[in-house]
Amino acid sequence: APRKDLAGKKVLVTAGPTWEFIDPVRYIGNPSTGRMGFAIAKAAWYRGAEVTVVAGPTTAEIPPGIRLCPVTSALEMRQAVLERFEAADIIVKAAAVGDFRVDERAPNKIKRGDREWLELRLVQNPDIAAELGDRKRPGQLLVGFAAETEALDLHARAKMERKKLDVIVANDITVPGTGFASVDNRVVIYDRCGGRLERSGSKEEVAWALWDHLETLQGR
Ligand code: C5P
Question: What family does the database annotate (predicted)?
């Protein structure tokens, strides 16, 4: 049986993509499956935590023992996360949140008609992780993710600072067979104390390694 190092802890995880609807039948999304977030949730549950997952639309298998809060858009995710943030000891933001949403969603299905162009105006979504960074109280641990295509160290560390995260888990999404929608992952974990460690393996193994590292940061 695993050590219950998270016994008595409340863990809040976000997972999956967000969908930003354009009209009643179309949306802007991304290839996130939610598998990394659910692996993190499952590992936390095994280690004794009370776990809530706020998940965007996903077909991933929902692990046992977790409380699931399904959402669709970034704004819904923000609402659900803010409602649950106060009660959480550790927050892991593994969701791939859409940076933009459609300014005015068409009430009816957009027809091709005889137009050659269709313009969509997008507006920026709020950065949920950054909002949590601002509201974080002492003792709360905030973990973010970063999918990068270049200069991993630089961009990940900058994101950790800017969003006031304690830890950031970065993956280079240009590496084939890792990242979005794959079984395996190769990540670099950075922490606010200057730590940097590389881990690769299944998303379950990476999740377990992340909790091992977070355990060393608790109370520091
Ligand atoms: O800036 P970027 O989107 O790459 O940052 C990734 C991290 O920020 C992830 O942890 C993601 O869940 C979080 N995020 C968020 N709200 C957004 C965008 C990203 O919480 N609107």
Answer: In the C-terminal section; belongs to the PPC synthetase family.
Q: What's the rounded Cα separation, in Å, for the pair 51 and 36?
A: 15
Distance of CA 97 to the CA centre of its chain: 7
**Ligand 1 centroid, distance to 127 Cα (angstroms):** 6
pTM of the model: 0.94
pLDDT single digits (tens) 183-199 = 778 899 999 999 999 99
1 CA to centre of ligand 1 in angstroms? 34
Given a cut of 60, whether residue 45 has pLDDT beyond it is yes
3-state secondary structure 169-206: EEEECCCCCCCCCCCEEEEEEEECCCCEEEEEEEHHHH
Instruction: Give me the torsion for CA of 144, 167, 52, 48, rounded to 10°.
Output: 160
Q: What pLDDT score was predicted for residue 181? A: 63
